[in-house]
């Protein structure tokens, strides 16, 4: 099946208001920048986004934040996005902060059909006990907080420890960025740009990938495939100009 779509706009055309979307990337690396821009132009709003962080001001998810398109974010890191922090603290945005490894596993497990799992991460903290601020009002008062989660003691490696039950994530859509993809949706990522892209791609009902290089089926060695095409529903090939648009989040150079 040929899964190639002509443009990012066509690929995201059916994303409706209120959709949940997993987004790959870490900082500015491996971010599906042009699919995000297409959503901005398309106009979908009241979105729930699952991502490690919300990009930076003026790029990636920062574009949707600036337009107040996001209702809720599940993330592990507020990051360098000042608008993200401002909206959260002023009551404009609901934020569920999740430990980074737990977030990745919640996505991966969702894609594997596992509805929930136990992890030791967060045991004995507000992650398990509840009370983490999810939403503030305009006066800075907490109006919604995380609920307590089920816990259970397991004997692991000869020692009893408390574990926390975490529910998996299976969003409506996922947006990912790959270095290479074929027409069947098989994807290959480049080095650290892999980051959250594979678990995001595996988690969603509909996964859309922007790829820097499109090849024909059979050109990717099966051993090199990071995400099999069964998880991917639409593929968009970027232009050379789009591929070259790769920012550096923090430029550090030697003094002259």
TrEMBL record:
Which keywords does the record carry?
A: Transferase
Q: Which PROSITE patterns match?
A: COA_TRANSF_1 (PS01273)
The answer to whether UniProt assigns keyword Transferase to this entry is: yes
Q: Which InterPro entries match?
A: 3-oxoacid_CoA-transf_A, CoA_trans_fam_I, CoA_transf_BS, NagB/RpiA_transferase-like
Task: Say which domain of life the source belongs to.
Answer: Bacteria
Q: Which Pfam families match?
A: CoA_trans
**Which SMART domains does the entry mention?**
CoA_trans
Gene3D superfamilies per the UniProt record, alphabetical: Glutaconate Coenzyme A-transferase (3.40.1080.10)
Signal peptide start and end residues: none
Question: Which molecular-function annotations from GO does this UniProt entry contain?
Answer: transferase activity
Query: Family assignment?
Result: Belongs to the 3-oxoacid CoA-transferase subunit A family.
The protein's name: CoA transferase subunit A
């Amino acid at each position: 099946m040929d899964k190639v779509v002509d443009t990012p706009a066509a690929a995201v055309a059916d994303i409706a208001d209120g959709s949940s979307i997993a987004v790959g990337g870490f900082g500015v690396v491996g971010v599906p920048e042009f699919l995000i821009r297409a959503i901005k132009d398309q106009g979908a709003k009241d979105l729930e986004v699952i991502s490690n962080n919300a990009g930076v001001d003026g790029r990636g998810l920062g574009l949707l934040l600036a337009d107040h398109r996001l209702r809720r974010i599940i993330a592990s890191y507020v990051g360098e996005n000042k608008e993200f922090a401002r909206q959260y603290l002023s009551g404009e945005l609901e934020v569920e902060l999740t430990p980074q490894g737990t977030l990745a596993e919640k996505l991966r497990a969702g894609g594997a059909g596992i509805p929930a799992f136990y992890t030791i991460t967060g045991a004995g903290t507000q992650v398990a006990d509840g009370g983490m601020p999810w939403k503030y009002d305009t006066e800075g008062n907490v109006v919604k907080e995380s609920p307590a989660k089920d816990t259970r003691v397991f004997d692991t490696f000869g020692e009893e420890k408390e574990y926390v039950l975490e529910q998996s994530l299976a969003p409506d859509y996922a947006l990912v960025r790959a270095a290479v993809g074929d027409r069947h949706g098989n994807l290959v990522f480049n080095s650290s740009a892999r980051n959250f892209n594979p678990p995001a791609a595996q988690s969603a009902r509909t996964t859309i990938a922007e790829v820097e290089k499109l090849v024909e089926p059979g050109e990717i060695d099966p051993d090199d495939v990071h995400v099999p095409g069964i998880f991917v529903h639409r593929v968009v090939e970027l232009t050379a100009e789009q591929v070259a648009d790769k920012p550096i989040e923090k430029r550090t150079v030697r003094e002259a």
